[in-house]
Write a structure and sequence with these properties.
21% helix, alpha+beta, disordered N terminus, Rieske Iron-sulfur Protein, Naphthalene 1,2-dioxygenase Alpha Subunit, Chain A, domain 1, 391 residues, seven-stranded antiparallel β-sheet
């Protein structure tokens, strides 16, 4: 009897490197459309995905459409004030119901092709000649429902028939990072108000953005404003990797602002231990949560192609700050600059992923070794080396 050895991970077959360095993923993991298709299937369409801020859908009939992997999803608020999510596909002939990214309808969603009409709970309520087809089950031929949970003031959806545990897959990421189940709740994110939203169209693979967020080896090089506020970042220290650690503000820094000037009052439930500290959380696959004493910054990524990612960034403040018309520009400007600096670096890197110089990948220095954990997680989700050949 002969045996066939199990295929090795792309990480284990990388070129030989010194003990201080570990291998990255090969370049084709950032450029291959087939690998992106597999990521869409096994990650974006199978895991919980942070889709929309709940307060954006502020009245019955309000809706938003989002692209999640290969599927387009419509999220709307019902007449009872509840959020529902459906595949944005008419059950008749497959036309897309809503082409707009957001809008408001009175009582129903109607397909513009043949006028099949669905109520806000997804039930088929009308269609031309429908009364002549009494055998048509209006629930059975309703819109395809998508699982939805609300957390931190956002609607998270999962396209899987049987979604993973929300508590284990999403909420645990915050508990694991902060080391205290109640720590993230103290920011009261679900009760905060939107002070600013900026949408970035990044010409880079989504993984480059995640990897960038996970390390601070680059901070001293490209983030002068950030390292002025958080001096320890100048040493390349990845604060978001260590449980319970928040990067401390510099001694002369008064607030998390572009010039270190004073921000706003500490959020009511933020503890003294959390004051004057910045915490960063990655919720795989596509969410970054940034916590500072007076506001919260939420990044939500929407991978559109192997070389394009839309990033929506929300700056959230105490309601009274937004209602008063207070100037939030200095706190927005700090992370807006960080975003632009990071995304420019990712766009600079993306073309090199197709170069023969990166055919076997690159390397991670000790300050970046934890990115290797992300790579191993990704490979496990994709089924190991079956995710694609190393060219």
């Amino acid at each position: 009897m002969t045996t066939t050895p199990a295929p090795e991970s792309p990480l284990s077959t990388a070129h030989q490197i010194s003990p201080s360095l570990i291998a990255t993923l090969p370049g084709n993991y950032y450029t291959d459309p087939e690998i992106f298709r597999q990521e869409s299937e096994h990650l974006f369409e199978s895991m919980w995905f942070c889709a929309v801020r709940s307060a954006d859908l502020d009245k019955p009939g309000a809706f938003r459409t989002v692209q999640i992997g290969r599927e387009n999803v419509i999220i709307n608020r019902t007449r009872k004030g509840e959020l529902r999510a459906f595949l944005n596909i008419c059950r008749h002939r497959g036309a897309r119901l809503c082409m707009e990214e957001s809008g408001e309808v009175k009582r129903s969603l109607q397909c513009p092709y043949h006028a099949w009409t669905y109520d806000l709970d997804g039930k088929l309520v009308a269609a031309p000649n429908l009364i002549k087809m009494p055998d048509v089950d209006r629930v059975e031929y309703g819109l395809i429902k998508v699982h939805l949970r609300e957390w931190l003031g956002y609607a998270w959806v999962c396209l899987a028939d049987e979604p993973p545990s929300f508590e284990d897959a999403v909420m645990y990421a915050a508990v694991e990072r902060l080391g205290d189940p109640a720590a993230i709740e103290q920011y009261g994110t679900e009760n905060l108000a939107l002070g600013k939203r900026i949408v970035y169209d990044v010409k880079a693979n989504w993984k480059l953005i995640v990897e960038n967020f996970m390390e601070c080896y680059h901070c001293a090089t490209i983030h002068p404003e950030l390292t002025d506020v958080l001096p320890e970042f100048a040493d390349g220290y990845a604060a978001q990797y260590y449980v319970g650690h928040g990067a401390e503000f510099g001694e002369e820094i008064k607030g998390f602002t572009v010039d270190g000037s004073e921000g706003f009052a500490k959020l009511p439930s933020v503890s003294d231990d959390q004051d004057r500290r910045y915490y960063a959380i990655t919720v795989k696959p596509t969410v970054f949560i940034n916590l500072v004493p007076d506001h919260v910054i939420m990044h939500r990524m929407f991978p559109m192609a192997e070389d394009r990612t839309i990033v929506e960034c929300d700056w959230l403040y105490a309601p009274e700050v937004v209602e008063s018309g207070a100037d939030v520009s200095k706190s927005v400007e700090l992370f807006h600059r960080v975003n632009e600096q990071d995304f420019e670096a990712c766009e600079r890197t993306q073309p090199a992923m197709a170069s023969r110089a990166y055919r076997k990948g690159g390397v991670l220095v000790p300050n970046e070794h934890h990115i290797g954990i992300f790579h191993e997680w990704l490979l496990e989700k994709l089924g190991g080396s079956h995710a694609g050949p190393v060219h």
